[in-house]
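Protocol check, entry for the methods section draft. Step 1: assemble the input record (protein sequence plus ligand SMILES). Step 2: submit for complex structure prediction. Step 3: store the structure tokens unaltered in the notebook. Ligand used here: flavin-adenine dinucleotide. Step 1 record:
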Amino acid sequence: MFSTDIAIIGGGPVGIFAAFQAGMLGMKAHLFESSNALGGQCAALYAEKPIYDIPGLPEVKAIDLVQNLIKQASPFKPQYHTLAEVIHLSRQEGRWLLESSSHLKVAAKAVLITAGGGLLVPNKPPLEKISEFELSGSIAYKVDSIEEYRDKDVLIAGGRDSAADWVNSLCGIARKIFFVHRREKFKCTLSSLEKITEACEKGLVEMICPAQILGIEGENGVIEKVKIGFPDKSEREVLVDKVLFFFGLKTALGPIGSWGIKLHSGRIIVEQETCQTNLSGIYAAGDIAFYPGKLKLILSGFSEVATALHHAYSEVFPGQAMHLQHSTDKGLPSA
Ligand SMILES: Cc1cc2nc3c(=O)[nH]c(=O)nc-3n(C[C@H](O)[C@H](O)[C@H](O)COP(=O)(O)OP(=O)(O)OC[C@H]3O[C@@H](n4cnc5c(N)ncnc54)[C@H](O)[C@@H]3O)c2cc1C
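Step 3, stored output:
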């Protein structure tokens, strides 16, 4: 079992920033992330997209923001545990005891929950052999690297912004994109749709709608063809190398809902002045935290982290007065 000052639940941008902020306050931190990588929504949903509203960074790719946050926290050597969903939280001998799905146990003086929308799980179509294609990377629900799609024939299915955005982002990189949606109308911005129409005129994209994917055929994870069905019961086959499904994500609060923490519509109620929950020593920040007027933005999460950890100082260092110190005065630990 590990012992630490602060346990952070969730390795999205807000959780990683918490690892930095904890270090600045002299606190040891262990961070649990349920998925196999840090970065939360930034890494899982829009890694390659530029973000424009991070103060001081006029434009930053989501994945680069994540990498920068990890670099910023690195002087403090936080302990990151990926594939470690926190499933139990209990009070034992004056400490908070956390247990993960990977059987890791950490005793902490205070806990900061930065679990975002909870566990992010993509909605999957009910197709045969889907896991075989997922394992080989032929079927995916997000784009990890644009280069994987270079000069490939790609089918993108979905009707919302994420699907349309990726049609445009991969246009000119993929050899050809088949854009399949079950309805005639798309729920995406008009400008995205206009760009796609232009790409269709150039032969780079073919829109197939209204239509549904009936099945995917292939061997050993390699796709041979995708069967598509139309409302008049006719069928068509397309030959593609890769398929991307953007059918939205399910978010599940998971075990957090059973820890006795007060919730509002699946989010954790915090007192805005401290970011503390109804349980003393348990804080929340980022998308998971709720208070009247809350904005679900990365910059709000960063500010909440600072509030929470400055307040948690008295639990981590009882009897020691907290003096606000600027980073310019404090500096960083030498390497
Ligand atoms: C397409 C898109 C574009 C966006 N663009 C912007 C933008 O331009 N500007 C902006 O400010 N915001 C933007 N956002 C919103 C922004 O991504 C979120 O506000 C931000 O990711 C919240 O960060 P977070 O760390 O609180 O949560 P998340 O990023 O959701 O990370 C939470 C992490 O906690 C993990 N987790 C959950 N439960 C557990 C558990 N029990 N144990 C361990 N780990 C757990 C999850 O796996 C996840 O990795 C965008 C969102 C989307 C979807």
